[in-house]
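subagent[fold] <- orchestrator: predict structure for attached chain, return tokens only, no commentary.
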Amino acid sequence: MVNPTGATGPVLWSYLLSPDTKIQANNNQQIHEGLHHGAQLVVHRYGDMLIDLSAGYSGKSKKIPIIPETNFLTFSLTKPYTSVCIFMLIEGKEINLDDPVGYYWP
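subagent[fold] -> orchestrator:
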């Protein structure tokens, strides 16, 4: 694991680091090892932003750094996640497939 600041070397006492620092350190390590060029992670829970991390570059050229405002082309990548969320709501009896969409939205 690399230092959360991005410097290479072991992170001693990593269990003392906050979860977002551990995630950032793991991401930095993956970038350092060449597993990917960069990533962005945002986690919200109950309307509160818990994690907002950006690191690395948006391509092999390493000319454009990833920042919180970086846009990514995801196309239909979110459809499987949406499906899982909907089926979790069905399983928890929070929505019913027989109800019209207008019952829930807008």
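orchestrator: received. Logging for downstream: Helices lie at 19-32, 78-91. The two ends are 46 Å apart (CA to CA).
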